[in-house]
Amino acid sequence: xxxxxxxxxxxxxxxxxxxxEAIRAFGLAPLIDGHNDLAHAARGAANYSVDGLEKDSIFxxxxxxxxxxxxxxxxxxxxxxxxxxxxxAVQFTFEQIxxxxxxxxxxxxxxxxxxxxxxxxxxWQKGGIASLLGAEGGHSxxxxxxxxxxxxxxxxxxxxxxxxxxxxxxxxxxxxxxxxGLTDFGREVVRxxxxxxxxxxxxxxxxxTMRDAIRTSSAPVIFSHSSCRALCDHPRNxxxxxxxxxxDNGGVIMVAFVPMFLDEEYRSWFDGGRNGPRPPVTxxxxxxxxxxxxxxxGIDHVGLGSxxxxxxxxxxxxxDTTGFAVLIDRLAERxxxxxxxAKLMGDNLLRVLDATSTESVSSTQ
Length: 365
Description:
Blueprint: H1 20-28, E1 31-36, H2 38-46, H3 63-69, E2 71-79, H4 86-106, E3 111-113, H5 117-125, E4 129-136, H6 145-153, E5 156-160, H7 184-196, E6 199-201, H8 207-216, E7 222-226, H9 240-249, E8 252-255, H10 259-262, H11 264-271, H12 283-297, E9 302-304, H13 323-333, H14 338-356, H15 359-362
Parallel strand pairs: 1-2, 2-4, 3-4, 4-5, 5-6, 7-8, 8-9
């Protein structure tokens, strides 16, 4: 039987917590969010300025809101739109990596770059917010393994194989399939990511690409921000057979909070022109997806991937990063123990980071 050893963080508990099991959970593991689009939001709204992020910002994410939600580690998305030329996407992505580096330098008492599970634990234990990089869309490497290797040297820890459009080597969930999954080069990309310690992120990809990548990958995969197809038939969500395969692969689905992925009625309202009142979407919808993923994939294979600052509308009570505390409290009310909550919050993802850290990645710190 595996014995897990937890270390207490020096972070104060989020103010919204009420349930004793939730309070204990925040002392056992860092809450790791798998996907946040602050860098892209800041590009459009603030010309990449890193000022004004202490609190009460215009964004769904700032230091005060992260603290209010108890976030201990954040995967910052470095995202380029899929419809722009690949060379522009490479530049776009490097600019967003630069934004994260500048934000860390601007707020050194809060943020620190993390590359490994050990980094995350160390930063969290001293009260900081560990900051990891994840590229959203394979077009960001411009079909170049050399660019992928350079991004890995800068700390890239996952890459989503597609965004909303196909790449020349992988099918997207929201485009017409042309490859039937991965091409030969796509499988080469996956193998190179494995060698570099860059996690294969299967959010946004087609079910065939999901299955192909899981068969190809020698390392655990992740879904950085996806929900469950059985509960909401959105193409961005994950079918149950793929969820089951995470048990053998060792990967993690990080459940997204985007209402279109959570509720069929909301999706129909949104896609149909948003006529009439907005259908209610609440923390209970997120809870249902988390518990479905747990029931199908197992408690060791579920996490959280909000997509804050990547969409304008979120469930009631989860409108910004303070909502993480509300969600964890609600799960505790439903009978989740502190140890189970710790797995969901961060221990499952830390296991994957530990399993995929390589000398080539850690030696570049």
